[in-house]
Amino acid sequence: MPDPDPDVARRTRRKVARRALPLLFALYVVAYLDRANISFAKLRMQDALGFSDTVFGWGIGLFFVGYLFLEIPGALLVERWSARKWFARILVTWGVCSMGMAFVRTPAEFYTLRFLLGLAEAGFFPGVIVYFTHWFPRADRARALTGMLVGIPISLSLGAVVSRWLLAQDWYGYAGWQWVFLAEGAPAVLLGIAVPFLLTDRPAQAKWLTPDERAWLEATLDAERRETATVAMRVRDALKLPTVWLLALGIFATNVGGYAFVFWLPTAVKGLLAGMGGGSDDAAVLAWSSVVYLCGLAGVVTSGWRSDRTGDRKWHTFAGQTGTALFLVLSTLPGQPWAVVFGWLCLAGFFAHFWYTPFWVLPTLSLTLSAAAVAIGFINMWANLAGAVGSPVVGALRDAGLDDRGCLLVLAAGFTVGAAFVAAVPVRTTPVASPVGGTGGTPGD
After folding, report:
1. What span, in angstroms and rounded, lies between the C-alpha atoms of 133 and 140?
2. Domains along the sequence of the chain with CATH
3. pTM for this predicted structure
């Protein structure tokens, strides 16, 4: 590692953060909104098209099937080709697919566009992780990732508020649910056109850095790459480690509940309100849902701060998983007024976003350097596979007659099983340095 000039290092890191993070944060907010806005549009779209909950469940799940296809190739293209060109392609195509959802009429069209949306967005988050390695020294990458993950609850809360207004519109003969897709998909296309002019691929091309800043950044990153290149592990060797499977199965079970919680929350809130005689006005449903999602922002920030301060990752992850399960169960108890039920759901929203930031540090604490690098990609595949399972299961259960309270109990079971797997993970007392990567769950990706 080169001897750092403190002033140059500090100045360079500040410039890179100011230049890259706001744009990448905006891209991630738009990305998560375009995958999740189906949960908002569903409130009107279901009656308009006559789709069953099973159809919606499969449509939501097929996004993740498409997503898995190009996840690894997308990361390789950022490494070997161009981040700004690849991100531009991703943004334009997923924006077009999202806007195309406004014109579906049959389940087959719905399934096809959801699959294509996942295929279009695939490679974005892994590509961002690779892009971080081109610009951020290892010590800064975890903070950069946390800044990205904060975008999940912000996107969901903002999306609920905007969709509430769009659902009430009837412009040019298009229904409100159609405007949800048209208006929320358009920013991705516009950002895709702008990204090649706003993003820089490598430090050597950054005219906004001075020569000494470019030299320091390139030398620092090259030294880190040489350091990690000296250690290697084959995928099949990493998969023989019990810890890898505990983490993979833990995030799979958790995300089965977590993704379904994100996508089915407005439907559950609508059902709970109607069951309590409080009406089921869609504007009110989305207003309540936006507050639950916003509580997740506090969960992300709190878990990141507390787990960094205490050095504990495992039990913070466990607390988030079990806390979500507990408050989902409490929300299903009969005879409670809506204010109490809503309070339990807000706490569930807080803990549903509390667990994933410390979770992604666990591979680096419980595995060696090379094993962690391989395992993160494998664990992330299971995280996204859960998205293809959870929503179809909930949709089928609802059509089979399970009520909203019963569905919430199923989601709580997923979080509980995930917590049991995480509790069994052995953690080193001395952290092992490793690159940070992967997506959180309720995230995704």
Report:
1. 10
2. 6-423 (1.20.1250.20)
3. 0.79
